[in-house]
């Protein structure tokens, strides 16, 4: 194993031959390999030759660590449906709780001039559960505040002989659901199973065609979690639109019903149910549930209009995400030509 910082991919006649990198002493070196796996994260500078990046920055996370406090439900993650967008709390040790405040847009209040402290104390703190309020204010006063842009990028691969792209360099979703590692680990299992029967990686073009199956086989898990993350973020974000408010409340109440109504969405969140159709059914079940609450016991023209806008808004949230993920790849993967291609035969 050689540790270093990769500067660029080595490309020859459209085939990736290896990498150019700097070692810990600052020397520029080259490393050659029949297969290069590129996974250099959300700020990847290597992805452009391997995919068609369309990066969206819907918001930023502002991170704090709260000390010596008790969560309302111990040992569980918490999503606070705040205004303008969600706030997350989850334990990271026996005495520490991480708080992630979602700030919509690409810019956050400045930390250096005190705008961030003011924002957290005046806008966010009043929405924090009472059990965490004092610890939250103490963490803000301590000043160890970190910010990170939230990025979303559909998987749009450009199959290139000699290389495979993985992780956040290849595919990102809003981190509200914490699905990034689930997708990454699932991708590793898919790629491992494809590489397992191979004994020769040197036929770059044949190997590239074979590994196109990776992009199809990963789709059920990846697209389910990607779509859910994007849809939930939009549903959970506050809006002045009454129909969006109804959708947000309907989602909360739907999950509160328990049984199938909570187990189904949680199995989708965790990657245990990698079926995009289940996600679509639950999402529109929430919308229908919201409309039903509006129309019962006696529908009025105003409530019927809000219900119609709720259904329209739900479609407007989920359908563009599905379109970006690829309808055929999500729901009809067996139709994709590279699906389950047999391993290349060994060359004599």
TrEMBL record:
| Gene3D superfamilies documented for this protein | FAD/NAD(P)-binding domain (3.50.50.60)
- Primary residence: membrane
* Pathway annotation from the record: Terpene metabolism; lanosterol biosynthesis; lanosterol from farnesyl diphosphate: step 2/3
Return the GO cellular component terms, semicolon-separated.
endoplasmic reticulum; membrane
Occurrences of domain Squalene epoxidase (ranges): 33-305
Q: What reaction does this enzyme carry out catalytically?
A: squalene + reduced [NADPH--hemoprotein reductase] + O2 = (S)-2,3-epoxysqualene + oxidized [NADPH--hemoprotein reductase] + H2O + H(+)
Record's bilayer topology term? Multi-pass membrane protein
Residue stretches spanning the membrane: 279-298, 304-322
Enzyme class, UniProt record, top EC level: oxidoreductase
Show the GO MF annotations.
Answer: flavin adenine dinucleotide binding; squalene monooxygenase activity
Task: Name a single GO biological process.
Answer: sterol biosynthetic process
InterPro entries to which the protein is assigned, alphabetical: FAD/NAD-bd_sf (IPR036188), Squalene_epoxidase (IPR013698), Squalene_monox (IPR040125)
Reported cofactor(s): FAD
Keyword list, A-Z: FAD, Flavoprotein, Membrane, Oxidoreductase, Transmembrane, Transmembrane helix
Q: Where is this protein found?
A: Membrane
> Which Enzyme Commission number(s) are on file for it?
1.14.14.17
* Described function: Catalyzes the stereospecific oxidation of squalene to (S)-2,3-epoxysqualene, and is considered to be a rate-limiting enzyme in steroid biosynthesis.
Per the record, the similarity remark reads:
Belongs to the squalene monooxygenase family.
The name of this protein is: Squalene monooxygenase
Tell me which species this is from. Answer: Trifolium subterraneum
- Lineage of the organism: Eukaryota, Viridiplantae, Streptophyta, Embryophyta, Tracheophyta
């Amino acid at each position: 194993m050689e540790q270093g910082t990769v500067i660029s991919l080595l490309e020859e006649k459209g085939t990736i031959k290896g990498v150019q990198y700097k070692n810990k002493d600052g020397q520029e070196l080259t490393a050659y390999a029949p297969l290069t796996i590129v996974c250099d994260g959300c700020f990847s500078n290597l992805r452009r030759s391997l995919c068609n990046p369309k990066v969206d920055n819907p918001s930023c996370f502002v991170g704090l660590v709260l000390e010596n406090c008790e969560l309302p439900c111990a040992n569980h993650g918490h999503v606070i449906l705040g205004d303008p967008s969600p706030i997350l709390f989850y334990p990271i040790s026996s005495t520490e709780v991480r708080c992630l405040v979602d700030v919509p847009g690409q810019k956050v209040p400045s930390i250096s001039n005190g705008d961030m402290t003011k924002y957290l104390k005046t806008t966010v703190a009043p929405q924090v559960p009472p059990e965490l309020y004092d610890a939250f204010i103490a963490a803000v006063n301590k000043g160890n505040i970190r910010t990170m842009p939230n990025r979303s990028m559909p998987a749009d691969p450009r199959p290139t002989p000699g290389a495979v792209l993985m992780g956040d360099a290849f595919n990102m979703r809003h981190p509200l659901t914490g699905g990034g590692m689930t997708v990454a680990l699932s991708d590793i299992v898919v790629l491992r199973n494809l590489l397992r029967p191979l004994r020769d990686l040197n036929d770059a073009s044949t190997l590239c065609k074979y590994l196109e199956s990776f992009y199809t086989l990963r789709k059920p898990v990846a697209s389910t979690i990607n779509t859910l993350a994007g849809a939930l973020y939009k549903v959970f974000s506050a809006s002045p639109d009454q129909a969006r408010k109804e959708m947000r409340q309907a989602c909360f109440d739907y999950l509160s019903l328990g049984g199938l109504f909570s187990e189904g969405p949680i199995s989708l969140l965790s990657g245990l149910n990698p079926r995009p159709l289940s996600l679509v059914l639950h999402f529109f079940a929430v919308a229908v549930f919201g409309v039903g609450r509006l129309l019962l016991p006696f529908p009025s023209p105003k409530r019927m209009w809000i219900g119609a806008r709720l259904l329209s808004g739900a479609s407007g949230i989920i359908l563009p995400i599905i379109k970006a993920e690829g309808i055929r790849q999500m729901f009809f993967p067996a139709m994709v030509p590279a699906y389950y291609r047999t391993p290349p035969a060994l060359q004599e």
